[in-house]
Structure formats: structure tokens, C-alpha cells
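Q: Could you predict the 3D structure of Indolepyruvate oxidoreductase subunit beta?
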Amino acid sequence: MAAVKSVLFVGVGGQGTILASKILTMGLIAEGYDVKMSEVHGMSQRGGSVSTQVRFGESVASPIIGEGMADVLVAFEEMEGVRYAPFLKESGIAVVNMHRIPSMTVLSGQCTYPDGCLEELQRKVKVVPLDASQIATDLGNVKSANIVLLGALIAALGLKHIDWHSIIAQTVKKSFVALNIQAFEKGKSAV
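A: Sure. Here are the predicted C-alpha cells for Indolepyruvate oxidoreductase subunit beta:
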């Protein structure tokens, strides 16, 4: 088994960051990796920031990813990608959904959503931009954007050999299995 790898999922409440990280965790455990996962919900039910940390390898002592330690950052929303960029290693990769969710302060007119989030990230790290929300919408359900991003992550990590379809089928509602498998494959082929 390889050295410990660290993946940081970030987004806004309701985007499915926790589900995506749970599917990743289940697949890695099934493959025999030692896996540690932690979640930070914050004000997720109010549209606030959500982050999930997954670390895997032969032996993992802690689920916590410190600044400069993440191998991959999966940003479900552009601004969250910028907010958590300091957690990436210099050699890390950011898989970013090119999607904007305005915060309450933006919606109330107190501030504007900053332009250039993706460009700012690209100045700091290697970025894989992906319009996961549009891909999911084209498949019939924008809520499967999280699984599109999971597919992209799997391709970026080189973990295609695991039976992800089976893990997805065990995790999501039966009526959404086919859609989520399609979303996963679209994300995997987009990288």
C-alpha cells in the first residue's frame, strides 16, 4: 500500500460533501486501506461551510489534515476552494466545481461574490476545473454533482480499480443508483 494520502472535501451545506466522502471511505476500506474520516458541519443547515477530511494508507494515525498537508482538495463551490487552498500541499491538486453559491452577506447586498476565484487558485496550485453542477443537471439531477466530483477525484487519485459502482449502489437510495453511477462515470472521464 502507498503512503498516507489526504483528501479534503469542502463545500456548502446541502451539496453532498459528506455523502461523497462516505462513499470514498467505504470504497477505500473495502480495498483494505486504513481510513480515518472527520466532518465539520458548522452552519451547514443554514448554507454555511462544510468540510470533510479523509486520510488513507497502510496505517493512519489521525483524521486531521493540517495546512499544507492535503494531496487533493475537492471544492464543491469556487469560494470554498479558495478558502481551503492553504491546506493543499505545493504538489497538491484542486478539483473544483465551477459553481457559485452566494453567501447570506452576498444575498443581502452587504458584499459581492468575488471575481477571479478560479484564477486565484490556479496561481497557487494545480487546478482541475469541472462544471460538475452542469454535468449533473444534464444527467437529470443537479444533486448528483457530488458524485460527478467523486468520479473526478477517483481519476485524479488513480483509484479506478476499486468497484465504485457497488459502493455507490450500497450507499445511495435505490431509485438514484443508475443516475449516480452515470454521474460518477462522467466525472471520472472528465479528468
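Q: Anything worth pointing out?
A: The first helix runs from residue 17 to 30.
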